[in-house]
Amino acid sequence: MNTIIVYHSTHHGNTKKLLDAIKEADPSVTLVDITKSQPENLSEYDVIGVASGIYFSTFHKEMLEYLEKNLPEGKRVFAVYTCGAMVKTYARDVKAYAEKRHCEWLGDYGCLGWDTIGPFRVIGGIAKGHPTADEIAGAVEFYKKL
Ligand SMILES: Cc1cc2nc3c(=O)[nH]c(=O)nc-3n(C[C@H](O)[C@H](O)[C@H](O)COP(=O)(O)O)c2cc1C
Predict the structure, then answer these.
(1) Does ligand 1 have an atom closer than 6 angstroms to the CB of 12?
(2) Which residue, 32, 67, 72, 82, is most buried by CB atoms nearer than 10 A?
(3) Matching CATH number, 3-144, of 3.30.300.30, 3.40.50.620, 3.40.50.360, 3.40.309.10
């Protein structure tokens, strides 16, 4: 399968750690940091992964705007995220974009990621040490089962 994962991982690079492990397991996957370049034509890919840290209870605003403009119709789509506090529904907006474009939803994988936003900074942040090796391995397993 011809796969691209577009990502936004700017807080601590937590989400990127999951993606680097996926890339190591499957070197054919294309990773694109949308803060650096925003491919407009994703139609050559069969499977589109959308990855981000969670910012104010959803994927980064820039990622959602990118999907609004560039997610093609009829693809197979999955999501990967890291967050300071686990909530199973954080990928709902990405799923909604996928469904709006008549894409097949393959599911999502989320885990904790070190978070030093706001007052948490004083105590060194929350979810320190995350994603763990097990959480990173979990992302690879999720990807392999797609
Ligand atoms: C501005 C900001 C807002 C955040 N909002 C949330 C949130 O609503 N829920 C949550 O669980 N984590 C939140 N976090 C924590 C991040 O989702 C978490 O640290 C994530 O691992 C960051 O991923 P990244 O390093 O790949 O960008 C927030 C972090 C920042 C910087």
Answers:
(1) yes
(2) 82
(3) 3.40.50.360
